[in-house]
Amino acid sequence: SLERKMTRSMVNLSKLSREGKRKLFNESYFKILKDISLKYKLEIEDSKIRNIITNESSVVSPNEIFLMHYLNVLKDIEQNYTQSIDEDLLGKIYSMLLGTEDLMEFYRTKELDNSFTKVLVNKMYLGIPTNNIENAMNSLFSFVNNSTLSPLIKAVCALYFCYYVKPFETYSEEIGVLLFKYILAYNDLEDVAATFDLEGLLNHTDELERVLLESQKTYDLTYIINFVSTYLDSKVSDVLDNIVLIKKDDIVRETYSTIVENAPSITENSDNNVEQIAKVEENRESSNQINNNDVLIYNKNIAITSLPEGLSEDEARKLENHLK
User: Fold this and answer.
1) CA distance 223 to 221
2) What is this structure's pTM?
3) ∠ Cα 8 12 16 (to 5°)
4) Which residues, including other chains, have CB under 8 Å from residue 45's CB and lie 6 or more apart?
5) Which residue from 231, 227, 199 is spatially nearest to 213, judged by alpha carbons?
6) CA distances in angstroms from 62 to 52, 208, 260, 282, listed in the order given
7) Rg of the chain, C-alpha, whole Å
8) Which pLDDT tens digit goes with each residue over 100-124?
9) 273 Cβ partners below 8 Å, 6+ apart?
10) Is the pLDDT of residue 307 over 60?
11) N or C: which end of the chain has fewer CB within 10 A?
């Protein structure tokens, strides 16, 4: 089942070396940030995204700053997966995405006119009245913390709820995806939950909203649960496959280190040992060839329409360098 696959990904991740774990997280974050870039039609080079992940960017644009903020939330899931699922966590996610510690307001204060009609579906609404948001979100937290349903079901419900309620002026969909991961992480999946690329769902809004509205119309969340679970299953498989590749690289690296440590014996049996080292190097190169077919390529030139509300001193310096 999907839940067993997720558990296996957590166990397999724990067996990687420290370097291997960092490689897995960085590769996963790269795919996730590519999906976020696609949603907002940001044209950012792959090398720029990788530099953001490794904190090697000395110059950043306004579009790249949002990716930095999103990365900060992913790293928080990775490192602080024991956080309680409550309103404080929600505020933390929102403030990190905005890049500020001082929120001028919390829940949405403007009414939305997001009604639309789908074929064979009555008129539905996304975004409940503002005076109902706080009670609705408190009901969600009570359900997540007290329900005996599986963590996966609770995570899907949180995603659905954030998409339907739209509790914030901006980033409600992203917060739904991130809350999904926090719930899985808190419920024993720990840091591996940050690597699941749920962000790709936000680039399939037609399908997602069709299923969401079907669930809304029928009062049956089975539709959205099945849809998200099917999507997530493929992403967990990607993580498991990547772990296997990185584990092989770990083994090759360990073997190589052992041979180097025993270097004096090489002079005594030079022919055999040189041949062995050559094979290890060949295996190292082949194991480093990671399949990048999932990278999203696009040619649109539309940027984020507004700057983040808050910038750290480091981010402000990088932005200043970009504008020079």
Assistant:
1) 5
2) 0.80
3) 165
4) none
5) 227
6) 13, 29, 46, 42
7) 22
8) 988 888 999 999 875 543 333 455 5
9) 259, 265, 266
10) no
11) C
Instruction: Report CA 76 to chain centroid distance, whole Å.
Output: 11
Q: What is the pLDDT of residue 285?
A: 57
For the chain, the distance separating the N- and C-terminal CA atoms, rounded to the nearest angstrom, is 53
What 3-state DSSP class applies to 60? Answer: coil
Determine the residue type at 284: R
Residue type, 124: M
**Contact, 182 vs 89, CB < 8 A?**
yes
> 222 and 129 in contact (C-beta within 8 Å)?
no
Alpha helices in the chain (DSSP H): 2-14, 18-39, 46-53, 62-79, 87-98, 133-146, 151-165, 172-184, 205-218, 222-261, 270-287, 313-323
- The token pair that represents 2 in the structure block: 């999907």
Q: What is the mean pLDDT of the chain?
A: 84
Tell me the torsion sign for CA atoms 108, 113, 119, 120.
positive
Give the model's pLDDT for residue 300.
Answer: 41
**Chain mean position to CA 75:** 9
Q: Is residue 292 pLDDT above 50, yes or no?
A: no
> Tell me, what's the pLDDT at 256?
72
Q: Residue 219 class from Cβ within 10 Å (0-12 exposed, 13-18 middle, 19+ buried)?
A: exposed
What 88-91 contacts at long range (C-beta under 8 Å, 24+ apart), as own/partner pairs, is 89/179, 89/182, 90/137, 90/167, 90/175, 90/179
When pLDDT is averaged across residues 113-138 and rounded to a whole number, the result is 71
Mean pLDDT of 202-224: 90
